[in-house]
Amino acid sequence: MTETMPGGLAAGNAEVMDADSGSLTHVDETGAVRMVDVSEKDDTKRQAIAEGYIFMHQDTLNMIVDGTAAKGDVLACARVAGIMGCKQTSSLIPMCHPLNITKSKCDLEPVLPGQREDGRVGIHAVMTTGVTGKTGIEMEALTGVSIALLTVYDMCKAVDRGMEITDVRLLRKEGGKTGLWTR
Question: What was the pLDDT predicted at 23?
């Protein structure tokens, strides 16, 4: 089921579709990709929250929680990596504008036995980002959470190559012309 935002836009297309015209904003009239001109837009306070999971063997989770990973403190490193990932988004995703990020926080919590109906264990990551600017910060939240989870994988892959990163998604965005959107 597709969620919709004000103006009838599909939630997954929030930053791709122009809410006024229904057209793709990263494609010009000839079909060529472009970075959207935001120079005439007003600065507004914007925030985005994204989440994701990495599932693993119980022994791997124990190693992370106990702080015995060979590469060091997995969660501390992944938190920093998530924040750094947010700051590098425009270098990684071609049509993203460089932003003067005003807030970036990466929360990582163990998913313990019995907390999920499917019995899986691992780490739940939540990335909160903020900016006062002309364009949204959803991509920074999504990139940050992805990089945090990839860092957990990198630091633990020697003992568990079967880890699985799943459910990376936007939970909330606020600010700008389209206002509030929540999953």
Answer: 63
DSSP β-bridge partners for residue 110: 123
> In the annotation, is 18 catalytic?
no
Q: Three-class SS of residue 93?
A: coil
Tally Cβ neighbours within 10 Å of residue 178: 17
Residues 20 and 38: their CA atoms lie apart, in Å, by 15
Q: pTM higher than 0.90, yes or no? A: no
Task: Say which residue the tokens 């910060």 belong to.
Answer: 137
Element (H, E) at 60: helix 58-66
User: If DSSP codes are grouped into helix, strand and coil, which group holds residue 137?
Assistant: coil
Tell me which of 37, 66, 118, 154 is the catalytic residue: 154
Dist CA 118 CA 168 (whole Å)? 18
